[in-house]
Amino acid sequence: MAGKPLGVAQIGTGAIALANHLPGVQVSQQGEMVALCDVNQAALQQAFTATGIEKVYTDYRKLLQDPAVDAVIIATPNRFHKEIALAAIAAGKHVMCEKPIALNYADALEMYQAAEKAGVCHMTAFTYRFVPAMRYMKHLIDSGYIGQPYHFRVNRLQDWGDRSMGWRQSMELAGSGELGDMLSHRLDYGHFLIGPITRLVASTRNIITVRHDASGQAFPSDVDDWVAALAEFENGTTGNFESTKLAPGRGEGGKSQDYCEVNGSEGSLIYYLGQPNVLQVAKRGGQLAPVAVPEEFLKVPGSPRDPHQGDPLQIFRYDQDFEFIQAIAEGRPCQPSFFDGMRVQAVMDAIQQSDREKRWVDVPGLGSN
């Protein structure tokens, strides 16, 4: 892209924006964060203090009228993703949206189709696709290193106790709990590494119905705290998924349990988020052993950041914002796109249906992007 940098605006300036998106945009030499927007004045002030970005809005509609804004990153409560994304698309803005991109599959489909029709770049913030070990795992599977995949299993185990999660503990605002918050990423692992999920049976539990803030004030919680599913992939691979925030001793964040294993006819691969630059690898008849991720997988191609500088559990997250800006600059689709967000939403809907009806459920066939 020649000329001035791409103007990016952040809609929703909470913790994810401050930790991931604002510094991530700074990595790119072809993009610049030019505006901030949040209905929460305290969050907006905090983001302004952290960045010094002077253009601030409390109404995203006014922000979308700003000619300096070419693209937006949406990091609001899930309930507002669709309306903001559709407004941005109608205004001709490129859009990255935090996951899950919608409250249901029908809304996600509408967002994907609108973005495609408008010809704008669209991206779902499946951050963990950019972990070096996950990218290397993808390469090894695609190259046939483990042969025919047989089994895929993931778990995300954290220890949050009864701590308040704000809007994330409201079904009205979030659409789900652990399912959309953490398992959505792991569903994307399955699509990324193996392919489409075709059918599943699942269960969820709302175990903590009242959560407390730091002062001890109680707030109702009507979302799932635990979710698990058995699944079948289109290519015959079996799937096993589990996620919870009620696993005492597991901690939270990047140092908690985030595990992904794929077993195939010729070998196995194991990924732990806590070791983002290492894979556990075994060939048939051998023993699992750690293998360092090769240098070329430590960051996305073209990124100017030094993969050896900074906390490895944090710096990979900046690559998703670099990818967003780079895809716009090069006039190509973003990876992962709204199609990937829509595909995960279809599985999430199937999980909720299976839990309600206590049976196996087929996932809508979406084809390929």
Can you characterise this structure?
- Helices cover about 35% and strands about 25% of the residues.
- The protein is α/β, with parallel strands linked by helices.
- It has 11 helices and 17 strands.
- The chain has 2 domains: about 120 residues, Rossmann fold (3-Layer(aba) Sandwich); about 190 residues, 2-Layer Sandwich (Dihydrodipicolinate Reductase, domain 2), CATH 3.30.360.10.
- Helix 4 runs parallel beside helix 5 and helix 8 crosses helix 11.
- The longest helix is centred in the last third of the chain and has 20 residues.
How is the secondary structure organized here?
Elements: E1 6-11, H1 15-27, E2 31-37, H2 41-51, E3 56-57, H3 60-63, E4 71-74, H4 81-90, E5 94-98, H5 105-118, E6 122-125, H6 132-142, E7 149-157, H7 171-174, H8 178-193, E8 197-205, E9 210-212, E10 218-220, E11 226-233, E12 238-244, E13 257-264, E14 267-272, E15 278-283, E16 289-292, H9 312-315, H10 318-330, H11 338-357, E17 361-362
Parallel strand pairs: 1-2, 1-4, 2-3, 4-5, 5-6, 7-12
Antiparallel strand pairs: 7-13, 8-11, 8-17, 9-10, 11-12, 13-14, 14-15, 15-16
Give the integer mean of the pLDDT values: 96
Helix fraction, binned, reads 25-40%
Q: Which CATH first-tier class of the largest domain would you pick?
A: Alpha Beta
- Give the total of beta strands: 17
Query: What is the topology, as strand order, of the major beta sheet?
Result: 16-15-14-13-7-12-11-8-17
